[in-house]
Write a structure and sequence with these properties.
Elements lengths: L2 H17 L2 E6 L5 H13 L3 E5 L1 H10 L15 E6 L4 H10 L7 E7 L2 E4 L4 H5 L4 H24 L1 H17 L1
Antiparallel strand pairs: 1-3, 1-4, 2-3, 4-5
Helix pairs in contact: 1-3, 6-7
Length: about 180
């Protein structure tokens, strides 16, 4: 490969690293054509960009972006595919689901999710349990709604009739 081609590929990877806040480094080698197609289709359906890369080019792209976590460089050995995504847990869930089809790939080598580095296949469950921004907002909203719902239900139930009676009695006394 000539130097201009390598530079173009490095720049392309660097742009993806800037565009997507989370990425997973995986090994998809050994998948047959059908399984690779299924994996790529699942990735496309879930908004994940899957890119097979050379380790040296990925490392250069990380260095060009001043990537602060050199721990991830240690996993850049053997065949490598990168999953770029907006949501931190979507690729982990996809990997777990895909493995249920009877294959042991893709194998997680490492990940950069929510500004944290995860190294090794044993971190897959941890990554899958990360809540997305939307899930966290939903949890906060439900926590904020809970006290209001309790007050409303109390006012609508028997306690509400008692409160209404007390308010009516107090208003009659003031007249």
């Amino acid at each position: 490969m000539i130097k201009e081609d390598k530079t173009a590929i490095i720049n392309s990877i660097a742009e993806k690293l800037k565009a997507y806040p989370n990425f997973y480094i995986t090994d998809i080698s050994g998948l047959n054509a059908e399984k690779t197609y299924q994996l790529r289709k699942l990735c496309f359906d879930r908004g994940i960009k899957l890119l097979v890369v050379k380790n040296t080019l990925l490392k250069k792209a990380l260095e060009n972006n001043n990537f602060p976590e050199p721990d991830l460089y240690s996993v850049l050995e053997g065949p490598t595919a990168v999953m770029f995504c907006e949501s931190a847990n979507t690729p982990a869930k996809l990997i777990k689901e895909f493995r249920k089809t009877g294959v042991d790939k893709p194998e997680l080598k490492g990940a950069y999710a929510q500004e944290c580095v995860f190294v090794g296949a044993d971190t897959l469950n941890e990554l899958a349990n990360i809540k997305s921004r939307e899930e966290l907002i939903g949890d906060i909203i439900s926590l904020l709604q809970s006290p209001a719902k309790n007050v409303i239900s109390a006012l609508q139930g028997n306690a509400g009739q008692k409160i209404a009676g007390i308010v009516k009695t107090l208003s009659e006394r003031s007249e």
